[in-house]
Amino acid sequence: MTEAGPHPEESIFSVETLLKYMGNDAKALAIVAKIVADACAPGMAPIELAGAALREQRLADAGKIFHSVRGSIGTLGAKRLVGASMALEQAIAAARADDIPPLFATLESEYRLVLRDATAWLARHAPPSAG
Q: Helix %, strand %, coil % for the chain, to 5?
């Protein structure tokens, strides 16, 4: 674990591998666009819920939310977010109270970056909606 935070060479958001795995064609693009849209639909709500759980000392609840976010957003090639979430989940599990606020701030920042990049990707690549 580094104190400097996420490594810049790690990706914020990248679905290129997922697209290639699914065939890298129009059908794959439509499926991946749906996955990205669904993953981003809740916006910041999961992070806000987890933050409230942390403030209320419901660490197990917060940890479950972070784990869920890591699973859903991690499929989008969000390596930096996955690393930030794992570090925070480990701090929660080890009850390292002093480490939790800065790790949460890092996770929140990474989540915002994923949403930003995913939204931009959708604007460039999502097929037009029917109707």
A: 70, 0, 30
Residues 72-96, buried b or exposed e (16+ Cβ, 10 A)? bbbebbbbbbbbbbbbbbebbeeee
Per-residue pLDDT tens listing for the chain (131 residues): 334 444 555 789 999 989 999 999 999 999 999 999 999 999 999 999 999 999 999 999 999 999 999 988 888 999 999 999 999 999 999 999 999 999 999 999 999 999 999 999 999 986 665 43
Domain containing 35 equals: 16-124
Domain count, the chain: 1
pTM metric for this prediction:
0.86
The C-alpha atoms of residue 52 and residue 50 are separated, in whole angstroms, by: 5
